[in-house]
Design a protein that fits this description.
Blueprint (H helix, E strand, L loop, with lengths): L3 E2 L3 H9 L4 E2 L10 H13 L12 E5 L5 H10 L2 E6 L2 H9 L3 E4 L5 H7 L3 E7 L5 E2 L1 H11 E12 L4 H9 L14 H8 L4 E9 L7 E2 L4 H9 L3 H12 L12 E8 L2
Helix pairs in contact: 1-4
Length: about 260
């Protein structure tokens, strides 16, 4: 079956041309976005930290690594070495400047699977498989690249209910680039089910989210920026009320996460 990417490569070249991409961002610490806090917590909870930093580090690879900042952050969290597979040359150049080793190629090129089969200690993607039709091919790529005993992390946005309206209002142009059908914990769980993989976690997370990546500084951008000031109240409030457990609902949860381990 032919693989279709709902995003053209030119879209990503354009996206990273104006690096850093426009996004309403908040301060760190207790004001940091609650969905990011929960994602970090879940990864640290379910992926054993490597504490032997004197030997060769285990390697975590991000498929579609973009600017490399995310895989670098996760690698530091769990004591791994960051690596990225990225087909955007502009993104790969930024990632390299950020200190992440990058293999520049289409992740679905056969040479990628041939070169990296059972190679990495952890493989993850963050907002990747929802761009690929069929999504099963994207998930299988994770399973092919991770070594036996290694971990798989798959994160996707969840544009359902309130989050669909948020997208419709501020970035309706993105709807066509996303497979909305897979954006819930039950669907992602079914897609990730495989006899080779032991499920560790699969669930909606994030509780509530306002921000979105914006293409340009226009009226919608500044409107969203004003709205996102509510996050300075909501993010610390959610941490106080819900801690690391979150309060997930079909109406508001903004993301879905799967964590699994490849059987030895």
């Amino acid at each position: 079956m032919k693989i279709k990417n709902l995003h053209d490569q030119e879209d990503w070249e354009k996206y990273y041309k104006h690096h850093p991409p426009l996004e309403v961002k908040l301060s760190s610490g207790i004001f940091n976005s609650y969905d990011i806090f929960l994602c970090d917590y879940l990864i640290k909870k379910h992926i054993p930290e490597n504490k032997d930093l004197l030997k060769n580090l285990p390697v975590i690879c991000e498929i579609g690594g973009g600017d490399g900042l995310l895989v670098k952050k996760f690698a530091q969290m769990i004591g791994y070495k960051p690596y990225s597979i990225e087909y955007s040359k502009k993104a790969a150049a930024i990632s390299a400047r950020n200190g992440v080793e990058v293999y520049v190629a289409d992740a679905f090129d056969k040479k990628v699977t041939s070169k990296f089969k059972n190679k990495f200690d952890a493989v993850f993607s963050y907002g990747f498989i929802e761009h690929i039709i069929p999504p099963e091919k994207a998930i299988r790529l994770h399973y092919d690249l991770v070594k036996p005993g290694g971990y798989v992390i798959i994160q996707i946005p969840r544009f359902k209910a309130f989050n669909y309206l948020r997208l419709l209002l501020f970035r309706p142009d993105l709807i066509k680039n996303h497979n909305l059908e897979i954006m819930n914990e039950d669907i992602l769980g079914k897609l990730c089910k495989d006899p080779e993989i032991k499920k560790i976690f699969c669930g909606n997370y994030g509780t509530f989210k306002l921000r979105l990546p914006m293409e340009e500084k226009n009226l919608k951008y500044y409107t969203l920026k004003v709205i996102c000031y509510f996050d300075y109240i909501l993010n610390p409030l959610f941490r106080i009320l819900f801690g690391s457990k979150g309060f997930e609902s079909y109406l508001f949860s903004p993301s879905v996460l799967f964590i699994g381990q490849k059987k030895k």
